[in-house]
Request: fold
Amino acid sequence: MQIEIGDGAFLVDAALLGELLDVSPSNVVSLMRDLAITSTCEKGIDIHQNEFRLTFFHGNRRARLRIDKSGHILQRSIIDFGERPLPKTLHKR
Reply:
């Protein structure tokens, strides 16, 4: 799967976000509108200058995608804190 990049925006498939955040893909857009799913984007520097790190937060989960400038996923990771809420230090709004 690839992330679409255009006009300074990233388009991530709802099926991928749903899988990463453990939600139904059909609910992803409404959860984002309600700010129940939030995200950050970081541009790489030095040896990672042609990469981006997209991080998504929902409930007790943080999902991260590292992609290249073409949108190919280089790495994906998930942290699930189980019954505990996501620590505020990991959740940027």
